[in-house]
């Protein structure tokens, strides 16, 4: 059995926090939320339902874009197969991520509902 290396745990924690800050900046929230800025921590921050809805809309837009590029390639309007395949992979990855998030949310919901009161 291996021992837990504290420096490795701190490095992983730092990496996770950096990724979280990057995601918050990409979402337009800035790094002000930090660890303390939980649900409703920042004024005007979108709630969970809004965040999920926005993510689903982005995945839908990516899939539409991939479909349009695929159709354009099939019609002969474009000859750039690389960009078509990249967009299709982006759409596929977005869909798979959405599916995994849904599965995790359902699992968490079932766990919460099965908790003894």
Describe the structure.
- By secondary structure, the protein is mostly helical.
- 70% of the residues lie in helices and 0% in strands.
- It contains 3 helices and no strands.
- The protein has helices at 6-26, 48-75, 81-113.
- Helix 2 packs antiparallel against helix 3.
- The longest helix has 33 residues, at 81-113.
Can I get a quick summary?
With 117 residues, the protein is mainly α. The protein has helices spanning 6-26, 48-75, 81-113. Helix 2 (48-75) runs antiparallel to helix 3.
Proportion of beta-strand residues? under 5%
The count of strands amounts to: 0
Structural class: mainly alpha
Shape: extended
User: How far apart, in Å, are the first and last alpha carbons?
Assistant: 36 Å
Order of helices and strands: HHH
Give the number of helices.
Answer: 3
Poorly predicted segments: 31-41
Q: Radius of gyration, Cα only, in angstroms?
A: 20 Å
- Name the assembly state: single chain
Mean pLDDT rating: 82
Q: Helix content range of the residues, please?
A: over 70%
Instruction: Give the biggest sheet.
Output: none
């Amino acid at each position: 059995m291996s021992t837990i290396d504290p420096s490795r745990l701190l490095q992983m924690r730092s990496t996770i926090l950096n990724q979280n800050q990057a995601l918050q900046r990409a979402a337009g929230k800035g790094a002000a939320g930090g660890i303390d800025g939980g649900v409703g921590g920042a004024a005007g921050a979108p709630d969970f339902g809004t965040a999920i809805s926005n993510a689903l809309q982005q995945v839908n837009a990516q899939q539409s874009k991939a479909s349009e590029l695929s159709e354009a390639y099939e019609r002969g309007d474009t000859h750039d197969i690389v960009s078509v395949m990249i967009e299709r992979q982006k759409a596929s990855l977005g869909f798979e991520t959405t599916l995994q998030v849904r599965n995790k949310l359902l699992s968490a919901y079932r766990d919460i509902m099965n908790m003894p009161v």
